[in-house]
Each structure stands twice: as structure tokens, then as C-alpha cells.
Design goal:
This protein has 444 residues and is α/β, with parallel strands linked by helices. It binds flavin-adenine dinucleotide (FAD). The site of flavin-adenine dinucleotide has 37 residues, from helix 1, strand 4, strand 8, helix 2 and helix 8.
Length: 444
Amino acid sequence: MNTVVVVGGGPAGMAAARAAASAGVPVLLIDSAPKLGGQYHRQDHTPGTEAFALPDGVEYLPETVVFAVEPVPGGHRLHLRTGRADGPGRARRRVGTAALVLATGAHDRALPFPGWDLPGVYTAGAAQALAKGQRVAVGNRVVLAGTGPFLLPVAESLIGVGARVLGVLEANDPIRGWFTHPAGLAAGYRKVPELAGYLGSLARHRVPFRPRTTVVAAHGSDRVEAVTTARLTRDWTVVPGSERQVDVDAVCVGFGFTPRLELSVAANCALAGGFVAVDLAQGTSVPGVFAAGELTGIGGAALAADEGEVAGLAAAEAVGADVDVPRSALRRVRAGRRFASGLDSAYPVRLGWKSWLREDTLVCRCEEVGYGELCRAVEQRDARGARSLKLVSRAGLGLCQGRVCGRNVAELTGIPDGAAAFSRRPIAEPVRLGELANLKEDNG
Ligand SMILES: Cc1cc2nc3c(=O)[nH]c(=O)nc-3n(C[C@H](O)[C@H](O)[C@H](O)COP(=O)(O)OP(=O)(O)OC[C@H]3O[C@@H](n4cnc5c(N)ncnc54)[C@H](O)[C@@H]3O)c2cc1C
């Protein structure tokens, strides 16, 4: 029987690997991190400790990146690179599969504002990863700004590693948002104790939570020393006269998440609304390719795991196992998706954020492309597609390959289908030419 290959060792990928193995199918689980868990269950870096066990039948490759996916007759060929991102002795290998589960998760979204390129400005996810993975606080006096419930666990983690959180600034009005989408709110009832825990922690540590407020500028000479906060209207333009300056040594911003679509786009999976489109069994538009977790929508770790279970079973079935996807799992996924769509409606990113920018505000930090330059590329040089805009302005051509700026560039310049346009990367992760030439193992 063919092996099911799962890419991603977060809640979705782990659940997919376990489910496929429970159906008696051999599984290869590939994850770029050194330990299992993904973002939500991020483990600290202590060697020799491992919080998660995998069943027999799962071969697990840690610190292994899938840097390319190639459709071949009867399935897909994956190109892997094993070893530390900057380490010596890395090895390259190829594997083939008829059933592929993509569970590559998301990275967090930052919106640009004047000064966001100063040292000391972090994404909320980076602050969380440092706090959970290394027990390091990004600063002593920290402001958190953005939108979405993710800001709350980040505040708690920062407090837990000794930072003083001066405020959690939520750009939307979540109470109003949730009560206009009661079905989503009801579907998320499993989250209520977690939410109450975070709010209790903010109250105990006297951390103010300010709706309809954000950071619109960061100031400092060689690192951030202060931020300007402001009240926002419903469409996120600044309420005149509401600006305040606050002294900080770090600021964390998080405006939701962007799915890591490179492998799905390379496998030709259709997208819908910026995410991988899936059917009830987590099947994508490409036969034999399944997707689960944040790739298919942002709904949190529990939904990711539920989708992973369904995807793993469906993938096992695709390679010949006799499988019944439990109705309970499908029900949980349906409820989770209602909650995810409630999240999406309660915490939108409103276009008024464009009004925080100045002509010289960098939008693409890797290639140092400013807002004014982007506008001129469109207005004067008629660069209206992702490719022409990249060539004219260089936005999205730097080290991060548009992961940070792509969605923002697309929104600012009106490029349709920005998610796909900036995720088309035949080589998804950096690989050395020597490694390309030196193939250690070829099972594909
Ligand atoms: C930085 C960050 C921190 C977060 N922290 C929290 C938190 O504390 N609490 C919370 O509720 N939510 C958090 N989230 C949201 C979180 O992503 C989800 O709720 C949950 O972890 C999603 O599960 P997933 O399995 O879809 O993806 P993830 O958990 O993101 O797992 C995806 C895995 O795929 C691997 N991967 C990606 N691309 C490749 C590739 N090409 N080759 C091999 N492996 C690959 C990644 O290394 C990762 O281990 C965080 C998100 C981010 C971006």
C-alpha cells in the first residue's frame, strides 16, 4: 500500500498522521521544526524532551523542509531538505506519494505604519514564539496592537516571561462584531473558558484592553522608544485628536494570519477567498491532495486538529484503506468552520489602515519599497499585476519573497487574487546549489 505523506507537524498534521496510521496505512510526517507541535503547541528547545508521541507506522522527519512539490503521473513528488536552516551537512531527498496531506499552517500578518521597520517592533506571533520557545520577553514595556483573539494569549505569555504589558489595543469592536454574528459565537462555545482565562489574567495584571484603538506610528532613533496610539473609526481611519504617545521598548502587532500557500499553489490546488478550497473530506481540487488546518481558514488549533483527523482518514482511503470518517469528526469540523467564519466577520482588516501610511513608509522591508513608490509604479508605469509590480518596484522580491508584504502590496495596489499571486514560488524555501546537485535518497 502507498504511503500517506503529511507535510506539517502542527495540530492539523499530527492529527492527520495519527488518523492515517490508525487506518493501517504507513505515514511519512515531515516538519520543518525541530520538535512536533507547530505554532499552538510550540515546545521549548530543551534537547531530549518531547511532549508528543506518534503511533507505530509513522516515520517522522523533523527539521525537514519540503522545498518543492511537483505533480507527476499518479501523484506528487516532494523535494526535501533535512538539517538546520543555516547548518552544515544538510541532506536532500525526494519522495513520491499518491496521497498528500498539506498542513503547513500560517504566518502572522503585520500592517505597515510609519516606524514599523525599527528594531523593537515584532509581530505578535514572533513575540509568542520567543516567549513559548525560549522563555524570552521581547521587551520590558510592551504594547500589543492589532486585531483578533490571538492578542490575548500573547499578552498572557509576555506577562508570564516578565514583560510589563501596557495595553492590548484591538482595532475592531469585538463585542459588537460577535453579537452581529451570533451563530459563529455559539459554535465557538468550546473556547469560552480559554477566553475567560485570558481576560482574567489581563484583569489581574491590570492590563487595559482598548477596542477601536491601535498603534499608528513607532518612534525612535535606532530602536523603538515610543509609539503613537489612536482611536479608530469603524473603517479604521484615525479619530482626529485621539493620538497619544506612549513610551515603550517593544511593540507587537498582529492583524490575523496569512496561510502558507506555496506548496498548495505548486500542487495546483484551487483557492477560495485566499485559502485552499476543500470539500467535506478535506479534499482539494486536485485528486489525492488534502489540506487541513490554517491553510483552509483561520479557526484555531482545535479546528486544525479536527480537520487533520478527517484529512488523514480520507488520505488513507485514497491509498486503499477501508475507512469510515466518523460523523462526530465531520460535525466538529462544521461547527469549527462556523466559528472560523464568525472570527473572520468579527475581526476584519478594514481598508482605513491605508490612511496610517505616509509617502515614505516602507511597505516591502526587504527591498525597501515605500508606499509612494508603489503608488507611482501603478499610476505612472501601469504596473497592475503582481509580476509587473514586482519587476517595476521590486516589492516582494526580497528575502521573505512577499510573505510579509505580499497581501499588503496587493491590497494597496488593487492586485486581484493577491494571496495566490504572492505565493507562486517554485522553490518554497532556500536551498543550496550543492544540495540541489547532491541527491542522497530517491524514493520518488
Ligand atoms: C507564530 C505563530 C504563533 C502562534 N501561537 C499561537 C498560540 O500561542 N495560541 C493560539 O491559539 N494560536 C496560535 N497561533 C495560531 C496557530 O497557527 C493555530 O491555531 C494552529 O497552530 C494551527 O495549526 P496548523 O496545524 O494548521 O498549523 P501550525 O501549527 O502552524 O503547523 C504547521 C507546521 O508546518 C510546518 N511547515 C510549514 N511549511 C513547511 C514546509 N514547507 N515543509 C515542512 N514543514 C512545513 C511548520 O514548521 C509547522 O510546524 C500561532 C500562529 C503563528 C503564526
